[in-house]
Design a protein that fits this description.
383 residues; alpha/beta; Enolase-like, domain 1; TIM Barrel; ten-stranded mixed beta sheet; three-stranded antiparallel beta sheet; 13 helices; 13 strands
Length: 383
């Protein structure tokens, strides 16, 4: 069997961004699908897939490791996130093909370690009242037993009343949900100095956070190690890390408790299994970053089904409306868990008629024509 064609698709649903996909076709009529990690650079990653395709077309789709290394190593310079995104999506499509060849779901192809996957949802607001108004309908409908909270319009520490907002948010949600409910908090890299990060993270220690996500940016690993010293709450990071070498350093520095790799960025199913294997001897768990489409959610469910040291999977309900219409056989949350189906590969396909009818949009995370983009409420790196 040989790879004959690699195609990219981009589609806009109800999200503020596009979803972007890869399809790999073979000479025996079996195809596989994967998803591209895109937070604005949609055209760049699509062009990268096109660029690396000439290295991949004609190869055996079961040679996943060989294809992965060819993509990463054939690049003349060390690959960045755009290259790894392309490699990840291609790898995911190859796993889909492998499952279809074996007539097994991917998690069964690897070997399952659990029967279903626990998931957590998001909530946010300017205060705990607003966050709970968003959270409770999800809990009632889907049975979520864990969530991640964020303070909307939170300023950069130690500016203004950011600390008071943070404590009020966590205290309010904890009191409402009880001691058994797992609550993580996304700090959104709102802190610049490591010692401030440690001090602020310790403010919410009395409320037993499930994790404290990214008080600072993940660029400087030594700064993360500095925060971790003397910290009594679990630190979480990883959604922006794309190579194994950075993961190795982060673990060696004992700078993280909960790893949050993104399977669409870190090298796909093949490389994320290596991240989990690196973390397991240190008794570190994986909670995959999972904010994108229904397909990405399904892929992450398969990963968690066959990976021992995973905990709650990030999840937002995409079971209704356009997000659900994008694919066949959408997975559903029940009592706070997702169970994959037993169809081969990922157990779902894209609806290509739907994609053709919904063209992508041009968008940006930051409104550069807004004065807020250049203030403490906007992007700190361009103040």
């Amino acid at each position: 069997m040989k790879i004959t064609e690699i195609t990219t698709y981009s589609v806009h649903t109800t999200q503020f961004r596009n979803f972007n996909f890869v399809r790999i076709d073979t000479d025996e009529g079996i195809h596989g699908i994967g998803e591209l990690f895109c937070i604005g650079a949609d055209k760049a990653v699509a062009e990268m897939v096109k660029y690396v395709s000439e290295w991949v077309v004609g190869m055996d789709p079961l040679d996943r490791e060989r294809i992965q290394k060819r993509i990463i190593n054939y690049s003349r310079f060390p690959g960045g996130s755009v290259l790894y995104t392309a490699a990840s999506a291609i790898d995911l499509a190859l796993w889909d093909i492998a499952g279809k060849i074996a007539n097994l779901p991917v998690y069964k192809l690897v070997g399952a370690v659990r029967d279903r996957v626990p998931v957590y949802c998001h909530t946010f607001g300017r205060n705990s009242k607003e966050a709970l108004e968003m959270l409770m309908p999800k809990v009632e409908k889907y049975g979520y037993k864990a969530c991640k909270v964020a303070v909307k319009e939170l300023g950069y520490f130690p500016t203004g009343n950011a600390e008071a907002k943070l404590v009020e948010m966590f205290e309010g949600v904890r009191n409402a949900m009880g001691s058994d409910y797992e609550i993580g908090i996304d700090m959104q890299s709102k802190i610049y100095e490591p010692r401030e990060g440690r001090r602020v993270a310790n403010l919410i220690e009395p409320y037993r956070p499930f994790f404290v996500e990214e008080p600072i940016r993940p660029d400087n690993l030594e700064a993360w190690a500095e925060i971790a010293q003397g910290l009594n709450v679990p630190l979480a990071t990883g959604e922006q890390i794309f190579d194994l070498y950075t993961w190795e350093r982060l673990l060696a520095l004992h700078a993280v408790d909960l790893l949050q790799p993104d399977i669409l960025l870190c090298g796909g199913f093949t490389e994320m299994r290596k991240v989990a294997a690196m973390a397991e001897p240190s008794f570190r768990n994986i909670s995959p970053h999972n904010p994108l489409s229904t397909l990405a959610n399904c892929i992450n469910v398969h990963f968690c089904m066959c990976t021992y040291n995973t905990t709650f999977l990030e999840n937002e309900p995409r079971e209704e409306g356009m997000d659900a219409e994008l694919v066949t056989d959408v997975l559903r949350v029940k009592d706070g868990f997702i169970t994959p189906n037993d169809k081969p590969g990922w157990g779902m396909d894209l609806d290509y008629d739907f994609i053709q009818k919904h063209e992508p949009i041009i968008w940006s995370r930051v409104k550069l024509d807004s004065p807020a983009a250049y203030t403490l409420g906007g992007a700190p790196h361009i103040m």
